[in-house]
Amino acid sequence: MADIKVVVNGVLGKMGQEVLNAVDNTQGMKPVGGSDIAATIDQIPLPTGEGFIPVFQDIKDAVKEADVVVDFTNASGAKSVMQAASPAGANCVIGSTGLSEETFKIAETLAESNNTSIIIAPNFAMGAVLMSHLVKEAARFFDYADLTEVHHEAKIDAPSGTAIAIAQAAADGKNSDFNAPNAEKQLIEGTRGGVHGGVVIHSGRMPGRVAHHEMVFGSLGQTLTIRHDSINRESFMPGVIMAIKATSASTGLTVGLDKIMGL
After folding, report:
1. pLDDT tens digits for 42-52?
2. Which of 79, 136, 155, 228 is catalytic?
3. Domains of the chain, with CATH numbers?
4. Active-site residue 64, yes or no?
5. Angle at the Cα of 74 from the Cα atoms of 72 and 77, rounded to 5 degrees
């Protein structure tokens, strides 16, 4: 069986480098190129030291040899990847967050009209996906829910896409809103956080964090805490590799790694 040829968008960034390293060290996969809008060079060495891959500023120039394009840049970058890759017959694995409903509709249309696979997931850490699954199962037994997420200081969006997915999982599991009491006196505006389906969400941003999510359910006389931490960016790579492999077995739009994990 031929190797899966992979192009990494945002290849010069921290996540792009992790993806490139994971792909280059996975049997049955072959990195064939990268793209990055900040590129000032036309090639970079492979992490294994076994050759080089070309780097392009424009994703349209990079997709020609690809079976799969992986993107962990931002919402705009993800949209550009899908619009370039899918018509060229390449599948997509998208880890960028902050995508609009319009972008999801575009992704669905592109995948169906071009008979390709597009996998979009708010989080590729399997533990975080399992957390959402457990949250959904537990939600119906509780009336209060507070969710805290903490990421590195350079993260663009707040709350994280994973936090929104976890809050939605809780709302789906309960099938109604949680109680989200307001403080009688809020001495600093916004202290109670944002609310999604009655789940109160608090966002922290600081150096030293990669991704932390902690859900605390509350009811009379008890709490239940479900927590997941990504210690480094390597935590996302098994899920990314799983998604790359899964693109060859399906067409259309798939949202969430849980579908691939069989949860």
Report:
1. 999 999 999 99
2. 155
3. 4-120+234-261 (3.40.50.720), 126-231 (3.30.360.10)
4. no
5. 90
